[in-house]
What does this fold into?
Amino acid sequence: MAATAIELVTSRAVTRGESDSATLTYFIENAADHDEAQTALLAAAPATFDTDLTIESWTVEPLDSDNPTLSLRWNGTVNYAKTTSTKTTPETGESSFSFDTSGGSVHITQSEA
It folds into this structure.
């Protein structure tokens, strides 16, 4: 049986003011592990909430705290926040460049002779 996430009736905690935010809570069942619970949560949670809030973070926690590796039931929380974009469109004649100079990694499976 596939994992499912259901929003709780008492879920919608919304804060409006200086820092607009919302938190939705879910009950997740039939999730064999953390990854499956997270996948079910993100499939059920809307990408945006209240038209201007987007997902900021999420958590999943097993309900069976005595043996979390065998838990099939989970609590999920999705936090939403207002996104503030600092990107500006260059004016005509202006240029904008962006580079990613981070490197990769190499996995060596044999030693040097």
Remarks:
- The mean pLDDT is 81.
- The helical segments are 34-44.
